[in-house]
């Protein structure tokens, strides 16, 4: 009896539930408007049948349904009219305003406006013939949004490849939003990111999170960026690192226009040239290629270093200016006057002559430069450093310097130099004429060299400051070119070496095979060396030359109207001042101390005790001690933290394999722009691994995140990781939405 009561209770509850469901269904049917109903447009046959108390229509076709201005096509369908649900099979299609979806089955929930399309290959094709293929795709017919999961691949109408584990397609906005295992490929770019938006109508890609890009020129990492394919415009932001065969680059903001071969780097820019041991810092770097042109502004710094092979220590030269400019040109493109002057500054080695007998107007002086030990004439002095003693013989060219641009040339030396220059030029031209391979690419330019030879230039403008452990310098501007291999300083240049300060109207640094061999001080040359706190040794002349060997000065020459003031100590106490005047002064140094001094022609000498010294005799005219301007360390040049060893691309950076493209677009995957050695095997392994991780992932509408605020003038802040299931409203997307609203309001 008890069992019968329980059974009756269950039957009663079932009846109540059935009645309630019927009432709810009736309520839905009553509330559903004509627009919300699914309509059968045509079919070959439709028959009614009932199953478990539910009425169905079996539609055989081809059949066509209409809902939300969207057509659903199939061969066979089971239509639950009460619940507004269709299950369709056979040649299934969904067509909406130029967007077409195909698959094997469709489960359409009319009240939710969701079509679940499944099949071995589900394909979405939009108006622009962009194709999305997957196996799992849900399409919202009201909002025109497609959602795929468990892997999908997109190939646009220009061959761009896009793939990810899951993603969305916004038909009205022509926007693909891709998440997880995002990979992108074009004929020039392969890219990986955490998320990517692709505007198919603009051919614009926007990407975020762990961006890795492989270009024909190198490798790049960043946190976010954009790529405009039509114009080949690239923009990368935040912790940007670029690696090429010759350079490593860091910046916070990178623009690159491939069409114009130009670009812009902003904020904490660091460029390291791995081939020339050069480092460039700044907050703005503009560049062009072919020919190369680089301009650095906003706290620019140039660093060159060399490594001592014996001690493995590094010695760096730091240079800053308001603007640094480096570019490459050719002989043919150069201004003819500038080219001629560069050739005039070149030095040609002179033939060595045998020294003649001594000249009565030349005599040695045992006085030494400041801080040195006074030595007598030493017979152990190397013969090659001995002075030419014959006034009118050709041997005067042996140890005297070649005439500088601002000096009066010696006729004999000038003839010899001109002869050697013309001979060298004839040898070069004859070599070119004989070589038929070079001749095909060379055009002559009168008496100049051939047009196609490259020339490199470096300019520093305004407030130039240089620091090296053994030398420091300041000036207003700096110029270097590879024709004369000479760096020139202008605008009150000053050079400091140990205790010595050297200045002139202009200074020239002469290099041979990247090694400094001489420094020229042209016009109003002045050397000052401090002794104790109040005494200054001084040498002044129209011209001065410092000869360098192994980065150390071994000889110093002062020419034309040379004057010198030396304070003479006795028992370590300075007691007198020695005043010297002559036409030329030669100083040999050892361990940076004067070992021998020789005065030549029209020599005058005077010794004045300190107690008889007048105030105006303590300084030569034009004396100016500029110690406060001297950079004391490298922090006086820049306080930036320098990335000495940049991160190298390693095993963590694996180029895109495009496994989903291999599955859904095998012919595209096999194209040369995508296919690389071993990539098919690796892509297949990756595809197998990802499909093991597949999971049911129903459609989840994305929440919208506001547009990123305008970038401040200072270094842009690092972005937070973009949350999942959030659609970022970018400037491009915001413009699209406003256009759509205007069209809908018409």
Structure summary:
The chain is mostly beta strands. It is built from eight helices and 39 strands.
Account of the protein in words:
With 746 residues, the chain is mainly beta. The chain has a domain at 336-636: Sandwich (lipopolysaccharide transport protein A fold). It is built from 8 helices and 39 strands. The strands form 2 sheets. The protein has a 37-stranded antiparallel sheet that branches. A two-stranded parallel ribbon has the order 38-39. A hairpin with a 3-residue loop joins strand 17 (233-243) and strand 18. It is rod-shaped, with a radius of gyration of 41 Å. Residues 1-29, 348-413 and 423-449 have low confidence and may be disordered.
What labels describe this entry?
746 residues; mainly beta; lipopolysaccharide transport protein A fold; two-stranded parallel sheet; 39 strands; rod-shaped; disordered N terminus
Distance between the termini: 73 Å
CATH topology of the domain at 336-636: lipopolysaccharide transport protein A fold
The CATH architecture of the domain at 336-636 can be given as Sandwich
Low-confidence stretches: 1-29, 348-413, 423-449
Helical residue percent band? 10-25%
Taking all Cα atoms into account, the compactness measure Rg is 41 Å
Number of helices: 8
Shape: rod-shaped
The computed structural class is mainly beta
The CATH superfamily title of the domain at 336-636? Lipopolysaccharide (LPS) transport protein A like domain
Q: What percent of residues are in strands?
A: over 45%
Oligomeric state of this protein: single chain
Strand segment tally? 39
Task: Provide the residue-averaged pLDDT.
Answer: 75
